[in-house]
Specification:
The protein is α/β, with parallel strands linked by helices. The protein has a single domain, classed as Rossmann fold (3-Layer(aba) Sandwich). It has five helices and 13 strands. Strand 8 and strand 9 form a beta hairpin. The chain starts with a helix and ends with a strand.
């Protein structure tokens, strides 16, 4: 698929899924989040990891708050991203509690870099990856800033996309810089992706 067509198609899909997500009734979203969280916490990859790279969800994203709470209770090292600039670069910092967060770029809660320790080892761990939608190969459609594609390029651990099953496509357009996730978790199923 030509690059121009990929960009146009992604733009269309992004608008479509943002609208769909914004229109999802709150009670249905809460039920989906509860089921998805349970599925994620049952993963062997979660149970066996010592470091969880997570993210603080925005209202239209799958809620990660209970996953972060559980990981802290399970004595895992929890690292959250902080956008370094608007050109797709982010750092991760270890948090001890949600008190270590403050509102940052894009009005998303991020670690307070004055309180938290910068992560320098990305050779292992489990990384939660956000997305507006995913496909069955683990490719994702994000918000278009490229933060996670850049991060996953150098990440040596296991990546897990989380998404509601109603937002999973058979196949998404992707280019050479798009990274797929190793595992896809929805409220209905878990898919281990083997693209290589």
């Amino acid at each position: 698929m030509p690059l121009k067509n990929i960009k146009e198609r992604k733009r269309e899909l992004r608008a479509y899924y943002k609208k769909l997500r914004a229109e999802c009734p709150q009670d249905i979203k809460q039920d989906l989040d509860k089921e998805l969280t349970q599925k994620f916490l049952l993963l062997d990859e979660y149970k066996n990891c010592d470091t969880l790279f997570a993210f603080v969800s925005m209202p239209i994203e799958c809620d990660t708050s209970k996953i972060i709470d559980n990981a802290l209770l399970d004595n895992k090292r929890v690292a959250l991203p902080k956008c370094k600039n608007k050109s797709g670069i982010m750092d991760f910092y270890f948090i001890n509690s949600k008190d270590d967060l403050k509102k940052g770029m894009y009005s998303i809660f991020e670690p307070d870099s004055d309180k938290c320790k910068l992560v320098t080892d990305f050779s292992h761990g489990l990384c939660l990856v956000p997305g507006l939608c995913f496909d069955f190969q683990g490719y994702r459609l994000g918000f278009g800033k490229g933060y996670y594609d850049k991060f996953l390029n150098d990440f040596g651990g296991t990546s897990v996309g989380i998404c509601y099953s109603r937002y999973v496509e058979k196949s998404l357009p992707h280019g050479i810089f798009d990274k797929y996730t190793d595992i896809l978790v929805t409220e209905k199923f878990v898919n281990h992706n083997h693209n290589d």
